[in-house]
Inverse folding.
């Protein structure tokens, strides 16, 4: 059975009863597994992680909207994290036995239904977007809920689905499809922040580096070392091992070595397998050679 | 649900109807998946690969014995591969959510039942063996079916279960538990067979190398290169990356580089993940950070 991951971000992180009602709505849908959810009160935002096939995920997102639109009023919402709507962002991520195209189709299907049922305008993003100015979440969310009405009045910002003006209390929602994100950090055996910052600049897309890398340099004060902190937004096109080897080589330039790297949260098996294939120089490897995959697919 | 793999080797590779009757017997057991089976006529031997939890696997092995003991007579059996019995070897291999101890217990349970129902003497091997002289399959099988009656008459060779003499037509069976085998080859960018042979000798257990490596050097005539061909018998204790790095370093001694490596057949995900962890210097990695594992285990 295909597995799609969906990670809705909702603009409520302070009222547990609202967060719980949304979790309950997701759990009530058969065929969807709610893997995780957590709230950040200072961001006033909650992130839900669920997985399933297309039809149950669609039902779960609609059930979630029903709760969120009824309970959340952006006019009274404050928090550190930028947001446009009560349900702020809904990404669909292909995990197993499903193509990106299928996730794009699902995103559009859900967007249309949400717009029709809740009168919330929808912007499509990432792989679901066909407008280069509206691919990036940060670009779409600029000006936030407070600037949304003025922005939607300009010709470039007609939504992809739904009404031409914001929902009074629920704003607008960004829905789309993207590759799994990998949060990946490399710790350097030095306390020189300038080295971490220079390496981050060398590898990140925005300053000339790899296309699917976002990176910044940080100091880990308690450990007296520095870190290159990254988001890898497409591990197939910019694989972990290439980023690691480049960071290692750039660090050598300063006489600095790598202490360790860390994967924060989840990583797709294929991203790790690609590293094993690269370093072990494995030729002609196929995913169904992984014993567990074989056991799961064959009958 | 726990997954155990079982790979019975049966002394019949020339009569398809017998092989099919055994496959059908395995398939008839609910909860067991027959993943693969293949016959080698020159070895006159067939290998079946199945997976499931303990109870269904036990039922499948018993069903298989019923067919094999009725159809195969070792007194009339010829073939290149050494063998002791109609059902020659039955290894149980822990794959997921199951310990080696549980596989050892299953091996003993199946051994006892087979001995009782079919009057076939059973030798326990590998992790199921408590006798150092009877751990290794090659040691137990020395002298083959033809020498079995004489050998069983000696005090050291009383079986672990069952009668003190061979079954007249079905001989004896070796049953046990072991780690998954990885068949791993490294191709060298040279046609010098002596280099492959020296490297094989350096890394294999029998001549002073790594404990869980069997290795030999071969010429790949059609490609004009040589190969270090290996079986890794415990990838947790002798990991792939350590073997690869050692072969690479030994090859450098002769000015030879590695062309590529290859994994023949199946490999456990954990063996590949360990390589990724090593080369990327990933600290504190846990198996449940692999997205697919998380998706499968949580609810």
């Amino acid at each position: 059975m295909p597995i799609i991951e969906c990670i809705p971000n909702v603009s409520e992180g302070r009222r547990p009863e609202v967060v719980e009602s949304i979790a309950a709505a997701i759990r009530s849908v058969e065929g969807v597994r709610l893997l995780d959810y957590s709230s950040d009160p200072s961001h006033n935002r909650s992130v839900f992680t669920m997985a399933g096939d297309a039809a149950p995920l669609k039902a779960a997102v609609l059930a979630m909207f029903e709760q969120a639109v009824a309970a959340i009023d952006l006019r009274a919402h404050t928090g550190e994290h930028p947001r446009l709507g009560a349900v702020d962002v809904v990404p669909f991520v292909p995990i197993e036995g499903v193509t990106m195209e299928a996730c794009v189709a699902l995103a559009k299907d859900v967007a249309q239904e949400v717009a029709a049922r809740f009168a919330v305008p929808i912007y499509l993003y990432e792989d679901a977007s066909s407008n280069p100015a509206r691919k990036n979440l940060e670009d779409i969310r600029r000006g936030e809920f407070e600037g949304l009405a003025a922005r939607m009045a300009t010709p470039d910002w007609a939504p992809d689905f739904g009404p031409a003006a914001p929902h009074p209390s629920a704003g607008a929602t960004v829905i789309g499809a993207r590759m799994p994100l990998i949060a990946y950090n490399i710790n350097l055996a030095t306390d020189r922040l300038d080295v971490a910052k220079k390496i981050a600049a060398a590898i990140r897309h925005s300053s000339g580096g790899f296309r699917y890398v976002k990176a910044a340099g940080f100091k880990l004060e308690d450990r007296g070392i520095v870190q290159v902190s990254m988001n890898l937004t497409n591990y197939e096109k910019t694989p972990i091992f290439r980023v690691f080897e480049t960071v290692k080589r750039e660090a050598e330039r300063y006489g600095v070595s790598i202490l360790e790297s860390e994967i924060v949260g989840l990583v797709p098996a294929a991203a790790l397998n690609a590293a094993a294939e690269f370093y072990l120089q494995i030729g002609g490897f196929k995913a169904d050679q992984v014993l567990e995959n074989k056991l799961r697919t064959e009958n």
Remarks:
- Chain B touches chain A at residues 3, 5, 33, 35-36, 51, 95-96, 180, 187, 240-241, 244, 258-263, 265-269, 272-273, 275-276, 278-285, 289-295, 298-299 (CB under 8 Å).
- Residues 100-118 of chain B form the longest helix (19 residues).
- The mean pLDDT of chain B is 94.
